[in-house]
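Postdoc handover notes: sequence design on the structure in folder B. Input tokens:
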């Protein structure tokens, strides 16, 4: 089922705000199954001032955070919950994390996440980040739904 979610609706499901909101748009989602979203990487990102001058590279931890945020949107939408309802979705772990190429200004970072399991509020997702079909990063990400 194709679903497009713009930045205003994303902000209803994620408590993050600039500069930590790392999902610009959701382009596809099947509740309880998968999500596809993206982050447009621009030279104006605040982290590029120091990472690295003369050779701008998006920090790997922020790529992982972007995958976790996309997963969080999928989890919140699946549970029909929002942070304003008193729920928060914590990023609690990453397994089998691998980086394959850098993400740089001008890239459109495609974020894919699929549900592996959901047990007692602990969700496990199979995630990847790509640019033009080239793998940037992949990981198994764990998130926990907890009261605020």
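Designed sequence:
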């Amino acid at each position: 089922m194709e679903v497009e979610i713009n930045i205003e609706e994303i902000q209803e499901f994620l408590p993050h705000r600039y500069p930590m909101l790392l999902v610009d748009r959701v382009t596809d989602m099947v509740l309880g199954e998968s999500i596809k979203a993206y982050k447009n990487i621009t030279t104006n990102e605040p982290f590029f001032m120091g990472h690295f001058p003369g050779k701008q590279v998006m920090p790997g931890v922020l790529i992982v955070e972007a995958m976790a945020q996309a997963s969080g949107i999928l989890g919140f939408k699946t549970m029909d919950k929002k942070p304003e309802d008193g729920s928060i979705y914590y990023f609690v772990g990453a397994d089998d994390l691998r980086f394959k190429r850098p993400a740089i200004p001008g890239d459109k970072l495609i974020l894919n996440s699929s549900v592996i399991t959901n047990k007692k509020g602990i969700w496990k997702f199979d995630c990847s980040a790509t640019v033009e079909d080239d793998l940037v990063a992949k990981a198994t990400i764990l998130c926990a739904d907890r009261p605020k």
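Context for whoever picks this up: Helices lie at 7-13, 60-79. Don't rerun without checking with the PI first.
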